[in-house]
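Structure tokens please, single chain.
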Amino acid sequence: MARDKAQATVVDTHALGFYKEIKGAVFAKNLRVLQESEVFPPAVIVYRQGGVAEATLKQFRDGLLKAHTIAEAANDELLNVDAFEPIPKDFAKSLARC
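Here you go.
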């Protein structure tokens, strides 16, 4: 916490929401959102082409895409991820816009 050491900061939506959840009164009394950025493209998992065998890559990709259907994975809040999805076709364009 800055405690009067900073007049402004940049945080992501999740961090801000978490802080608001645990420090609601402090948030309401002392903080305000000055500006919100456009929505950034979602995070991706990348690999070096040729660095992973195609069979392994397919198994990994298929596993991630169906992980949300497996009870143990669906209830795991460690990553705070609802589900994995294939990369959208316009991902490169949305990344370039940012």
